[in-house]
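Write out this protein's structure.
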Amino acid sequence: MIDDTKDTSTMEEGVNRVKFSEGNDGKGEDSDKTFSRRSFGLMKSQYQSVRHDISFKSKKFETKTLPMDVQRVYKQLKEDHGEEYALIWVFSMRTAVELHRGWHMPLLTSKILQQIKDKFKMRMTWNLGMVKLIFRVEDGEFELQRKIPFDYDSEYQDLFTKVATAFVNENIDIHQALIFQTEIKKGLHTAKSGRYIMRSYPGRLFIYPLQAASCALIFFDGGFSDAGVAAICGFTAGLIEWAIDSSAPGDLKILKDVIVGTFTGIIASIAFRFDGDFFCLKSIFMGTLYWFFYGTAFVAGILEIVSGEIETGVTRFVAVTIKTFVLSLGAAFGMAVVFTFGYEYNTIDAWYLQGLNCTSDRDFINNDLYRIIIYIVCSFAVLGQYRFPIVNWWRGVLVQVAGYVVQYKVQVGLEQDGVNSNLDTAISNILGAVAAVAASEILASVVDGMLNLYNRRILHRNNEVTKIGTFFYKITAFLVRASYYLGFGKEADLRVLNMKSDMRNQRLELHSNTHDRSEITVTAEQQRDIQEAIVSAEPLSTWSILMPAVYQLVPGSHIANLWFSTIFPYRKDLITNEKALAIINKDDYAVSDSGSVFELLMIISTSLALGLLFGFALMNNLSDMILYLRRICGLGKILHEGDDQDRDQELNNHGYRKQLMSLHTDDDPTDCSESSVRNLAD
């Protein structure tokens, strides 16, 4: 119960002065505002945040909207253990499905499910595979299976993680959590850029050519002419994916990769046929198909194998290898269509001749400024593919550039006579991945710190006011307004900011004995906005800003090189055109064989995975050190407007959610018991 008798005289004065100041001006108004703020600060130190004072309209999650098999399990669990237990299981399953679809990282999804299980004592287990998900509850009495295709989505990663964290931290109840999940799927809490551009066509069609052109330039030894053809191929690939995903029958959808590859091969080969001395087919193919290669899966597979999830890791590695071969074979089919008839070179001749046009010695790449500009453009395209909100693109670009610059500079620094050894490549990749993790952690901490000060003011959680807190609040409030008026921000954020003063006055009236207000009233829209603000106040998911950077560091293109070397083996007896053979011999044409490319693939993917593990280990230990210093030195009081318990809880939640996973090599309850001779208990 709230005791309304505490310092009522002070609060009564504050309320009266708020009313009086509305009709005053000059010095009297400033004095009144000072007293009202002082009274408001005293009131906040005695009562809880604004969400505890608002009479939210009772709205229950409609279970009839659930699939029939989920409804059957829900009804039985409700009968046996009550409604809340049943709904928590439903929430857990929905969270796993959407996170698996959004980032396709079972290690991360399992960690969040384990948090829910531990918090609410749920008797549930799960098995998250590549595509097939299995959920069990009541020690296996009920089991449901889902086949969930993945579709990388950074905004969904962050939102669904925050909803789960807000629920575990008891900032929202189970009905609010489930309703919020449903509203996310309807686009009510997402950025406008995601609804109209990045998750729907025809908006997405503009992302494909930008990514294809920029990747051809920065990664695959292409020139500006290659980038132009790659842009055309990318736009065509987007049209094909749109048509197949939206209206094609199931059998045709299975052939999407080979169709995309074939049309890419046809368009690029036509350009080469008209001017064979000008175009690098490899750069066009790689740039266009870069998004379809799913190179992140190589690193994720290695992470899973190293972490003990061997079945999932091996399955993922094999699956993405085959997918890459299908795309490469499709591009070769397209070449065959163009070069088989009426051309002086056959397909194999053309493949090796085009290699003469591919070179990494280009002025705009050797110039640091131009190279970074092109890389940033490529990063924008990747962020668009990952459905990253435009207003937050700067976060993703900082992490992407940090990883790339360290990787590139270390690799160049280790060169001897212009050549890197495999060990040099591994070292540069490890340090690049560590740099990306460190950048994402530092950036997330800075953003969380600023947003924490802002959200504490918005949600009336701050027990004290500091000058630095006021400074960051004003900066964040300005950015909220500016991003909205520029068309990038969310209208709900602006509405919450604008209702801050009204909520403040209503709370003063509510806790005053001289005012007849009995509750704080809000509209349905305001209620939804406040709940969104509560969820958004949870710390940022590091992986939501790290995944695009990992995607740009991974070796999807190298496995494609392996397959092209298999499709077009370097054997002079297969080259039928004398002119082509003479050119190749004259220029001492060199090509990587299949074995060396596969070895390079393993070196790059494994070193990047190890770099991520090293990075997280480093940053987690650094977080522990900061937590220790804040406790013994009181450093947190400088930047925090809550009490010591709030600060410690916030850092603990922050550190745990930033980890890659919670890994137990042996989860046998007997071995994890303190009485066990193996003593594996935490």
